[in-house]
Amino acid sequence: MNGALIYEDYYNLINKDHISGLIDEKSQVQPSSIDLTLSEECYEIKASFLSPKNKVREKLKKKFYKKIDLNKPKVFKKNKIYIVKLNEKLNLKQNIGGKCNPKSSTGRLNIFCRTILDKCDEYEKIPKNYNGEMFLEITSRSFDIIFNKGDKLNQMRLINNNNVYLNDNSLKLINKKHALIFSNKDNLIKNGIRLSVDLSDDKKVCAYESKITNELIYFNKTSYYKKSKFWKALKPTNKSLVIEKNKFYILKSKEKIRIPNNLAGEMVPYDTGIGDFRVHYAGFFDPGFGDPSGSYAVLEVKTNELPFIIEDGQTIARIKYEKLNKKTSVVYGSTINSNYQNQNLALGKHFK
Asked: Which residues contact 15 (CB under 8 A, 6 or more apart)?
């Protein structure tokens, strides 16, 4: 059937060598996505690029500034551009394609990364029946971060034939039977599910703003760093907050959401209709997220143009729901060591 592949499908593709190069299947295969891993092959480059007519490797020969070996930990300097070959290779068949997105832990560190494939004219796109290597462009925008071979920064969602996104009428019918969004407000289903920002209490921390610091972060450390060294806690003023140009913020949604085990979700990262800013670098929500009674969405917000004021309850993001090609038996949650189930306002897993 059409729709997003599920846990069992990924194992089937791995067993047939349509996906190869995984270093730890058990930790990489998720309910409706698969985590990808850095190889030792890394290049520092001076400008980002796509490779619509050539293999990425051929273009890299002319573009790279310095080659780096990630068998040893390497500091990726803030605002420098790196390309790393991923361990995984694809040899897809039967009209399977898809897309990639950063993982939540990547987005919450303000690491901008996007996948580049051979002879592909779009970032993050996996063309149907793609056969070849995968590369990841990485730019850390807030902190100097230490990476190593095997680190998992991004994820891949494969689709059988075509995405099957639910229209608003379908979402409303499902929401009446078993809530997809938990809120007292009406009219939250419009071009997907609309999420607003929580700035409801002037006495309570509502956001974190990244600090300028020379402290290093090892990407593979969890619950390790003192957050006050890297983040400034913010409280609203009159239930509003000024988002400054070129600063990075972590906020949370006012509403809780649920992804049923027959659907997957994706947050729209950039929607000019609700403001000239980018929200949520990491866009995939696996089936089971927030089940049964909902979980807040954490919002990663940055503007590159103008400072702007956001107010409590202001729409700040949208989530699209899409069908899986079948119901999955493996869902997001504690049984597969998911990091952000039942989250509140939360920094990445690296912080205590």
From this structure: none
